[in-house]
Fold this sequence. Notes:
The complex is a heterodimer of chains A (646) and B (74). With 646 residues, chain A is of the alpha+beta class. Chain A is 66% helix and 7% strand. Chain B is mainly alpha-helical and 74 residues long. In chain B, helix 1 packs antiparallel against helix 2. At the A-B interface, helix 2, helix 6, helix 7, helix 12 and helix 14 of A face helix 1, strand 2 and helix 2 of B.
Amino acid sequence: MTGADFMLASTAGNAALISFALYMVVVFMLAGLANREQSGKSFLNEYFLGSRNLGMWAFAFTYAATSASGGSFMGFPSLIYTHGWVMALWIAGYIIVPLVAIGLIAKRLNQVARKSGSITVPELLRKRLGSDTVGAVATVLLVFFQFFFLLAQFKAGAKIMTTLLGDVEVYQTAVAMVGRFTAPIPWVGAAQADYLLCLLVFAASVVAYTAWGGFRAVVWTDMMQGVIMGLGVVILLGLALTQVGGLSNATQELSRQVPPRDGNATLVRTESASSLVLAKGTWLEMPAEEKRQPFVRLKEVVEFSKGQTEFAGVPVIEVRTSLENATELKSIRAQVKDVGVSAQAVDVEGYKYGDDKPGVYVSAPGPKSSSGMGFLPIMLAVSFFCFWPFAGAAQPSYMARQMAFKDIPTLRHSIIFVALYFSLIYFPLIIIFTCGRVLLPGWEIDADRVMPEMATFLTSTAGVPWLAGLLVAAPFAAVMSSVDSFLLLVSGSVVRDVYQRKNPKASEAQMKKVTYWTTVGVGALAMFAMLNPPQFLQDLIVFGSGGLGASFLMPVILTLYWPGLTPRATVAGMLSGGGTMAVFYLVGYLVHDKFSAYELLSLHPFIWSVLVSALVMLAASKGSRPTDPKLVEKYFGNIGNKEGKA
Amino acid sequence: MIAAWAVTGLWVLGYNSQAAYAAETQTPVRMLFGLPRWTVIGWLLPLLVANAFTIWFCLRFMRDEPMEVLPEDE
Lengths: 646, 74
């Protein structure tokens, strides 16, 4: 690193630290204000639902921000970068998500929740159907699947912080101290020190402000985080389009790209008088071909010792750039340094779908390294078109928000706002990260990092490194806004549906204590589980949300709209939906030897799970004990009374 | 709502089952407004229409209903 590079990195790092510190100060101020709002109000109703008084901006922003999680700002960009424009088809269900996911159940859900005085989804199901078993099963499934979602967010939050603070001197000193302190501790010591420190800070801060401020703090911070996310995307889009030379140039260069090849190489150096360290991500230029210029990029750090001239079996990717791709070539050549090392005996393997196939990044099904059918066969595209709106409708964290809006005008304006907000977020994200393939090639070596890397690259190139802090705060805000909601949801279910059921006469002071400690306990458990995280962030997210959708979609819709639904059918529907999802992932694990879904007939397991859930509910409702007619009368009036008795 | 979802699905998946999956063989890439042509007709356009429908649905179709006043915490 030259002196100028170091200055630039330090400036960017310090700016990022200042931005981050300011951001956290505001978050805690909002939590403090929310805590003051709790005085004089019913604790549980205020803490978990903000007294059901959310106005348009609060409801819309908290819904949108909770929805746009670490998946949207870390996993999704990584997938766009890896698979190209086909991701527009993958996410296409979002075109109609606000109307379906909110419009389908929000009004009725809010009315039933008010009528029953419920503040959690399991409580609503229990009271509507008059069955403790329904409530208990719903609580168990909610906590189980939501916890997977929470785990993924903790990992994403820590990873973003690692990138955000990477160059800050104070941070590096703290990392070294943590490393020394934790190294002898089993399990904890196995985690990388920088990740561990960031995970600890992330978990402590998000748990603290959530426990302190409750639902209202979560909603207020969601509003701020929603604004930061929107601003971040707009600024990134402008910078990316300017630097790539316009949208047409980006699309044309992308259409000439072919997927990288993966494998090993032997590195040889001409001079060996001293030791040499090659960083992860180092580029080496290879001899040119007729139409393409190959480069090799290191996937790991390589350390030549003094006197060593050869290093075999180095993991690399081979990027073969079209000679017509001027922007891409310029970007790579700017990073190639003459270190006196060449790559020889390069043994690489191409993608099973898309190898040496120009056009694969601007078409469907998109490139895929592990399957000859490509990333998104048409039946899988159909699955995801169903998945996003309907799994979205059945997420308990969204349902909690739908219980909290104050009136119908709030609902209708919020649906419009969320629709426009999602359009503003998801469409630009695809453009930004397809541009990213041209501006920052070779990040297949660690695609989950492409979002913060793009933010740092674009702002540094534009001469505004201080802006990186704000841009990287956008995905961080997305993760935080989801984690706080999920923490609250899980602790709400535990406190309301377990503790209060067992201790109906618990005082408000006792409830407060249990609520705070449950929030802290859930956060600590998630942090401990994520000390050595699994590799596949997006798979955890899809499993968690798919499991919740499969467990709750049919049971909740029928609970709200079908007077003849019985408690036994509801329990059977939840268990069969969630269970089918888990079985498909178990089969996927056995078949693929990694945590991924088994896609029977190329359909996502969510589709099969919902079908199974619906059929099982219909079958189980025949002949089972009907719901208490008084409850049917309460929630459905005369119409329900007739059908309920039928 | 379900009808709107179905119509959007037919448009996006129906059109793209031909256009997007055939785009790989088209050289040079067919573009519209600097984007791959199928993304504009099969994704951006339905997005704009869906947003217009959502606005109409919410402002003109969705009925106002008084919300029940919640009894204090049980």
